[in-house]
Amino acid sequence: MKVVGGSASVPLARGIANELKTASVDVAFEKHPGGFPDGERYVRLRDSLAGEHVALVQTTHPDSMIIELLLLADAIHDAGARRLTAVVPYFGYGRQDKRFLDGEPVSAKTIAKHLAVNCDELLTMAIHNPGMLKTFPLPARDVSGMPAIGRYLKTAKVDMLLAPDGNAIRFAKEASAIAGVPFDSLEKKRIDSYTVKITPKALAVRGKSVAIVDDVISTGGTIAMAAKELRAQGARRVIAACLHGLFVGPAEANLKACDDVIATDTILSRYTKVSVAPEFAAAIRALG
Ligand code: R5P
Fold first, then answer.
1. In Å, what is the CA distance from 49 to each residue of 3, 27, 206, 284?
2. Nearest to residue 164, comparing CAs of 219, 93, 207, 125?
3. Most buried residue, 40, 96, 194, 287, by most Cβ within 10 Å?
């Protein structure tokens, strides 16, 4: 087994390799210092992969990382790897999981079709609609990252967890079992890409330290609304924890509503404080 990391996921790939007690393959991402002037991606494998089972770890944000993922998969295949497992920690385009309007692609499936050209199987994490994995043209499994968040929150002295909407309940529930604290939830209505509305609900949070747990923080609008509700109801400390920290648009301003923000290494950012390497390593071991 060898582990190859794309440029968006080098630390996670190294972490997975360490967990598996194997080598992380050296990859060059620039042909010339500074890269190509037009921003095109470049990859070159610097180790031999002939006959190996290779885990290729690459997240799909921003979009250029998808190109890099496909280039690496092709290079690994051409280098004679015996088996290729794509580890896509954040599966972009997951929200376009069906044809909402005539003429649209099912974008998540488009990505999967391209991966299937060279990859034998796919492991991902908290894809928007895990049910759609069975429609992918390669075996695919959604790996839970919530144990990693739960382990972190166990040491972060929180009194309870909060799911900011119905979708996040399953995540908060799983993390709360590991952190050993209870959880509650709110109901959210999305008005547009930037605006959400939270239905008022009494929460037992006065004087408490609360972690809002979600799969994704994008604009931070959801977290800001939930944090505002928690403060209004007397929470002493509010932290936000997510698997995938996209942090786009007004996220920085929105996250000022929190005392701390925690994200995993599925997408690297200044909030990355937790690694999901143990979760992916366990899933790779379980492949057999
Ligand atoms: C939606 O169901 C997701 O679980 C997140 O709550 C959402 O993607 C967060 O987006 P934003 O940070 O823009 O509110």
1. 10, 12, 57, 18
2. 219
3. 96
Q: Cβ(70)–Cβ(76) under 8 Å?
A: no
Q: Give the model confidence (pLDDT) of 161-198 as tens digits.
A: 999 999 999 999 999 999 999 999 999 998 998 888 98
Rounded to two decimals, the pTM is 0.96
Catalytic positions, written as ranges: 188
Residue for token pair 């007004």: 250
Which pLDDT band, with edges at 50, 70 and 90, does 93 fall under?
very high
- Res 130: pLDDT: 97
- Our mutation pick for probing the ligand 1 site, out of 93, 129, 196, 214, counting the most ligand atoms within 8 A of Cβ, is 214
Judge contact between 50 and 81, C-beta under 8 A.
Answer: yes
Q: Is 215 in the pocket of ligand 1 (CB under 6 A)?
A: yes
**Mean per-residue pLDDT, 16-29:** 97
